[in-house]
């Protein structure tokens, strides 16, 4: 009898200990949160690294138990596809691409709507750069006819916008010698004289263009005029923009246009998780990281986080913005 009682006690204690250890393990299991960015030579990747660092729960900061990582990718379209397919928890995209995806229009015409796409935050303006080789005699978009021009990779938001800009000036890809390269390789070919110009959409200054301007010199081609005014009236996600003098060595003030960089996720992500992530992005520690980490980080502000939305906010993000008073 005593042996049976003892045996039952040992079995019970073992079960309780097993449950206890399982509970501890479960409590300590990290939550992984990937941020799809862009090519390593662009602006998305370093900004993604700053935000991942800000929200990761380590050294007494961030969201407890959260392990966030910035993942290099082909950009906006690839990131939305990854979020939609569950291959990534979040990603950066241009506001135009997000709008098209959510509404099933434009680039996503005939491909169905990405109805679960939700916004965490609008980040900063993304400037359309048209970078030309010195001596290529490209003074306007119209001068690209017959030139060797990289439009960026398939799946990137830059390619979408490059096509729209060309179209505004009566050009198509057939009117140029089109190549489809990431900004890094495009810059290398420009430096070597194998390319005349390339499009890049991202916050200025971007490291790859800065290095190119310093090492071999560049020209920024204005994207302006009545053709652009018409473009802006048709596509409301575009806005007029200017690259100030001296942002890139030897380059004067250049009028151009921009879209917004946005951080998106899926409606399937838990509201509490996205609420805590959003709240952490706008705390004092994160503010210091963003201000010190990248020139574009200073433009990522709570006041702009809900501007130019285009798609619905994630409920977790919306809850925080209402508490913070930036949404009524």
TrEMBL record:
Coiled coil: none annotated. It holds the Pfam family NMT1_3. The keyword Nucleotide-binding does not apply. It comes from the Bacteria. Keywords: Signal. Residues 1-27 form the signal peptide. NCBIfam families: TRAP_TAXI. This is TAXI family TRAP transporter solute-binding subunit.
